[in-house]
Amino acid sequence: MNYDFVTRYAGNPVIKPSDLAHLPGGCNSVFNSAVTRFGAGYKAILRVEKPTGFTSLLVADSEDGRHFDVHPDPILLPENEEQALYEEAVYDARITQIDDTYYVCYAAESVYGCAVALASTQDFKTFTRYGCIAEPINRNLVLFPEKINGKYFRLDRPFQSDFVHTGSIWLMESPDLIHWGRPKCVMESRRFAWDKAKIGAGAPPIKTDEGWLCVYHGTSPLCNSLTYRLGVAILDLEQPWIVKHRAQAYILGPAEEYERIGDCPNVCFINSAIPYFEEDRLDLYYGGADTVMCLASCKISELIQFAKEC
Ligand code: BMA
Fold first, then answer.
1. Of all atoms in ligand 1, which is nearest to the CA of residue 228?
2. Omega of the bond leading into 251 within 30 degrees of 0 (cis)
3. Where are the domains positioned within the chain?
4. Measured by CB atoms within 10 angstroms of the end CB, which terminus of the chain is less buried, N or C?
5. Is the predicted pLDDT of residue 180 greater than 70, yes or no?
6. pTM exceeds 0.85, yes or no
């Protein structure tokens, strides 16, 4: 079995802080960014942190998914009292296209802790906001790209205060994307494994003949921090709470300097995976060391084989 089938983009990091130094207030870090196809090109929602520590989400355009033009004005800032209370700081977006609408899932921090919130857009200029769709503590919300048996589905990661040793991926269903229920635990961390501490959904699931292809992040505690790596699992198409396959080994972990060294060392954290089925290719967009935005690619067929055989 080939354990080395994911190839980093030669131009990594795709975006680094110095590329955005011209933004008002400068740029400390740009990472954990979501990318989606849009028209003939791409849109991205970047997590940009200023030297003040202010976290913002910025939209970027790209023609090729490798070079991005960043719009300077943050999106999803609080616009009313409720948002000011529950969505004080927003970050770690994931984008799922359902029909002609792009749904943006994101972490929303407040005095109560971190929750997950939802917004939608068709043009990445104006957003309809639905507010938080889980109470704290919750992160890593992703939507499935289509209804399954008439219901919307999502993955998320609720967790308790003993954060190092808990944190599993859960699933819920909804008739309307607002009201959610029937929670089920889909995947837990594994003892003595690379994902032995908390795990979280990464890229929105991708439909394949074998099932829903999910690239997620898993963590291992070091003496004083967590290492974040990427893993792969395949969920049943009809009953997505059933894990059909889950690779034992990770598919990508910190190795390059830009993944090892940064504001949070040893972090590969994924928010998007874009499939090109005709070319048998999957592009993985991930944050490096909470500082830069990176890209890696693999063959979809090899990723599926790895999930099944590793
Ligand atoms: C997680 C999230 C991510 C971050 C990661 C590593 O809990 O906060 O945004 O990339 O930790 O610091």
1. 6
2. no
3. 9-309
4. N
5. yes
6. yes
Residue 269 CB–ligand 1 contact under 6 Å: yes
The pLDDT of 190-211, averaged and rounded, is 95
Answer whether 264 contacts ligand 1 (Cβ < 6 A). yes
What is the per-residue pLDDT for 2?
Answer: 82
pLDDT score recorded for residue 161: 59
Give the pLDDT confidence score for residue 163 in this predicted structure. 54
The residue whose CA has the least distance to atom 9 of ligand 1 is: 92
Q: Give the pLDDT score at 19.
A: 98
Q: How far is CA 202 from CA 59, 171, 178, 231, in A?
A: 19, 13, 21, 9
**pLDDT tens-digit map of 10-21:** 999 999 999 999
Task: Specify whether the backbone of 48 is left (phi greater than 0), alpha (psi in -120 to 50) or beta.
Answer: beta
Q: For residue 305, report the distance from its CA to the centre of ligand 1, in Å.
A: 29
**Residue 175, preceding bond cis, omega within 30 degrees?**
no
Rounded to 5 degrees, φ, ψ at 239 are: -125, 80
Q: Please say whether the structural domain 9-309 has been given the CATH code 2.115.10.20.
A: yes
